[in-house]
From TrEMBL:
Example GO biological process: proteolysis
Residue ranges annotated for the Peptidase C1A papain C-terminal domain, each copy included: 26-149
Pfam families per UniProt: Peptidase_C1
PROSITE patterns: THIOL_PROTEASE_HIS
Molecular-function GO terms, alphabetical: cysteine-type peptidase activity
SUPFAM superfamilies: Cysteine proteinases
Biological source species: Rotaria sordida
InterPro entries: Papain-like_cys_pep_sf, Pept_his_AS, Peptidase_C1A_C
Protein name: Peptidase C1A papain C-terminal domain-containing protein
Length: 244
């Protein structure tokens, strides 16, 4: 199991990077073959599930941690994964506030003691300054499983899994002999650094993952520098959501 560090397999979650790269390496099956249900917790899927998963792979996309990159990704109908500090009070909060989560104090003890939880960001609302997120706790949580979270929440280093980064899947394709190259989103206008880390000394340093990065062309859009993916700047409507 991805990210396991001991012999006994437990579902302790996994990093977004390892999950996406694991899907790229091993494939992914349809949920009908292995549903997301507690009765399958810590059980190994049967061989036919692995066989079905191995027939496909995914094209991963890594995003810089800034608002323009996030909104550009969503405007192009690509949701992204992020790990957030979702406090215990969030469940009651979304019930009281019609699905809205408020901005906690990043320096609070509650935030420091809370581990990160993966959510899928599927849309945004410029009028209220909120992203639209999808949780994995069923339709009874939030608004049929969805919630609103402030823009500021996702660029505050103390409230997200900053080291794990932001990841998306741009496509699911049939597997060939070569794994798809990991791509990196480049936004026109220079919005390609982390918003919360513009002064990081290591932001220009190549890491092992960047050696996998390459560029692809979206139809009728400009090319940018080598090893980068370009998405267009979109004229944003009040709300962009593709999975609501």
């Amino acid at each position: 199991m991805i990210d396991q560090r001991r012999l006994k397999v437990t579902d302790d979650g996994a990093s977004k990077q390892n999950t996406v790269l694991g899907m790229r390496k091993f494939g992914v099956c349809e949920e009908s073959l292995w549903p997301y249900h507690e009765r399958f917790l810590n059980k190994e899927p049967p061989p036919h599930v692995y066989e079905a998963a191995s027939q496909v792979t995914v094209i991963p996309l890594k995003l810089p941690r800034n608002l323009m990159a996030m909104k550009t990704c969503l405007a192009n109908e690509v949701p992204f994964l992020i790990g957030i500090k979702l406090l215990k009070s969030a469940t009651d909060e979304v019930e009281r506030n019609g699905g809205y989560i408020t901005m906690p104090n990043p320096h609070s003890i509650a935030v420091a003691r809370t581990t990160t939880h993966a959510v899928l960001i599927v849309g945004y609302d410029d009028e209220t300054g909120h992203f639209i997120g999808r949780n994995s706790w069923g339709r009874d949580w939030g608004i049929h499983g969805y919630f609103y979270i402030p823009y500021r929440y996702l660029i505050e280093k103390r409230l997200i899994n900053y080291l794990d980064g932001l990841w998306a899947i741009t496509d699911i394709i049939s597997r060939t002999f070569h794994k798809p190259t990991v791509r990196r989103l480049i936004v026109p206008g220079g919005h390609n650094y982390d918003e919360a880390g513009r002064n990081d000394k290591n932001r220009h340093r190549m890491n092992s993952l960047q050696k996998l990065l390459m560029m692809t062309r979206f139809p009728s859009y400009r090319w940018f520098s080598r090893h980068q993916t370009s998405m267009p700047m979109m004229k944003y409507n009040r709300r962009h959501s593709w999975y609501y």
